[in-house]
Amino acid sequence: MLDLSGNNLSGDLPIEMTNVLGLIVLNMSRNHFTGHIPKSISKLKQLSSLDLSSNWFSGAIPQSLGSLSFLGYLNLSNNELSGPIPYKDQMVTFDASSFAGNVGLCGGPLAVKCPVGEGEKLHQIFKEEAKRFSMSTSFLLK
């Protein structure tokens, strides 16, 4: 167990802590950490509780968090995280409270739906045009 919550620590989350492979509980909440959540956090395969809430983490939630199969508690609330929540594997077990207070997050259990990406928009337009073409062609053939 490593609990350094509420210590006014700042800067990036020390990447070296992801080398403590037997770590089960990691609580770094209520500090002033900045930067991204390191992808290497997924090396902590025994982790059952992760609390990084109330910091200044930014960027996307690493997809690799979903591979932590023992993770039963996750709190990433009240940061500056953004983008879609990687809602697969273990991540589907967490509700909206795990991600609350990150105005840039979308998808997953949140009520905020992610905007359609440009590629998805083009695909949607293509499907609609193909449907219209198909309908007009069938009308001409009748």
Automatic annotation (TrEMBL):
<keyword id="KW-0472">Membrane</keyword>
<protein>
    <submittedName>
        <fullName>Uncharacterized protein</fullName>
    </submittedName>
</protein>
<keyword id="KW-1133">Transmembrane helix</keyword>
<dbReference type="InterPro" id="IPR046956">
    <property type="entry name" value="RLP23-like"/>
</dbReference>
<keyword id="KW-0732">Signal</keyword>
<keyword id="KW-0325">Glycoprotein</keyword>
<dbReference type="InterPro" id="IPR032675">
    <property type="entry name" value="LRR_dom_sf"/>
</dbReference>
<dbReference type="Pfam" id="PF00560">
    <property type="entry name" value="LRR_1"/>
</dbReference>
<keyword id="KW-0812">Transmembrane</keyword>
<dbReference type="InterPro" id="IPR001611">
    <property type="entry name" value="Leu-rich_rpt"/>
</dbReference>
<keyword id="KW-0677">Repeat</keyword>
<keyword id="KW-0433">Leucine-rich repeat</keyword>
<comment type="similarity">
    <text>Belongs to the RLP family.</text>
</comment>
<keyword id="KW-0675">Receptor</keyword>
<dbReference type="GO" id="GO:0016020">
    <property type="term" value="C:membrane"/>
</dbReference>
